[in-house]
Amino acid sequence: MIVVLKKHSAESSRLPIEGYLNANHISFRYVDALGVFVIPKNQQLNALEKFDGIETIIPIQTPYQLTSKSYKNKTSFAVNDIAIGENLFNVMAGPCSVENEDQIFATAEYLSSLGVKFLRGGAYKPRTSPYSFRGLETEGLKLLSKAAKAYNMSVVTEVLDGSLIDEVATYADVIQVGSRNMHNFHLLNQLGKTNKPILLKRGFQAKVVEWLLAAEYIMSGGNEQIILCERGIRSFDPSSRNVLDLGVVPIIKELSHLPIIIDPSHGTGLASRVTPASLAAAAIGADGVLIEVHPDPSKALSDSDQAISFDEFGTLLSKTKTLLAALGKQTDTETPVLNSGRL
Ligand code: PEP
Ligand code: MN
User: Fold this and answer.
1) 3-state SS class at 312
2) 206 alpha carbon, closest ligand
3) Residue 133 CB–ligand 1 contact under 6 Å
4) How far lies 316's CA from each of 80, 153, 274, in Å?
5) Mean pLDDT for each consecutive 10-residue tract of the chain (343 residues)?
6) Between 147 and which of 14, 95, 108, 113 could a Cys-Cys bridge form, CB atoms 3.0 to 4.6 Å apart?
7) pTM over 0.85
8) C-alpha angle 164-168-169 in degrees, rounded to nearest 5
């Protein structure tokens, strides 16, 4: 259950309610940034109705509360003037890893020439083997941010660990939590206290309820700017790197108010499958895509099999626009950037 306090009376209303809940041993969390009490156990609390300053009491039957659709119909926010979670299909693209200045600048130049607003790139990379390329770290963040600024794009990049949040937040416009970290509750908790949008990838073995509870960690810290990202789940079948669960899009739309985008690159693991999977993402109602693009895919230092070339990306984007037009939607690549002051 969520008890929403009236905005103007949040402080004066909070204490008597808190006193009542404590006296009755009812476990709760007060989320100051949202002005709400979350009372996770499903119980009858008619007594709460007598307290002043309550806007509404929302009964919620699921373990996730703030991320539930019962709490809110839709979440949308802007990243450097580009709307997320509105009727706009966000296109985020770039290399798996930032490798050097030429690579990231060439990618940013090409993508921005097509109107792409979000430049992705890993500087701290979670790699299965410690001997694989693990990213340029601070240098990678600096190059990524320099390239994004030069082409008026927003940065999407991963944080691997809580100790890196401050550093990553200095350069990122959207902080990515990777699939492996979806269960890192301490990290999620810390991200809940930041004011940066968080792109939360689905753990490759996570149930939908676990994914929404991971998002709940962030939201219960007061940070509502969350983008869910489906990136494929692990199966018994080696014919695909992961199984891209596109059916999860309408499920999330039913259960939650959070925007959901699709990562067809990790979801399929092979360049030739990225375009069909992206089109399917647009058709099934996703809010966007996150795509790995490289100037020379065969030479990519990480995830080279799934990186698409500039030409392939251009074709993907134009097909996506055509498909979305038939659905009465648009990509954000067609949106002019208002905030040209960043340059
Ligand atoms: C990535 O985006 O490059 C990445 C490592 O993704 P995931 O966490 O989905 O494997
Ligand atoms: Mn990758």
Assistant:
1) helix
2) 1
3) no
4) 24, 20, 8
5) 89 91 95 95 84 94 97 97 96 98 98 98 96 98 98 98 98 98 98 98 98 98 98 97 98 98 98 98 98 98 98 98 97 77 38
6) 108
7) yes
8) 115
- 237 Cα–ligand 2 center, Å: 20
pLDDT of residue 43: 77
- Which residue reads 């990524």 in tokens? 144
Q: How many Å apart are CA 244 and CA 234, to the nearest integer?
A: 9
Residues 6 or more apart in contact with residue 115 via CB below 8 angstroms: 331, 332, 333, 334, 335
Q: For tokens 């970290």, what's the residue?
A: 181
Torsions phi, psi for 90 (to 5 deg): -80, 135
Closest alpha carbon to 316 in 76, 72, 116: 116
In angstroms, the CA 231 to CA 264 distance is: 7
Sheet holding 54-58, edge to edge: 29-31, 36-38, 2-5, 54-58
> What residue type is assigned to position 55 of the chain?
E
CA 182 – CA 205 distance, rounded (Å): 10
**Nearest Cα residue to atom 6 of ligand 1:** 178
What pLDDT was estimated at residue 339?
A: 52
Distance CA 320, CA 236 (A): 31
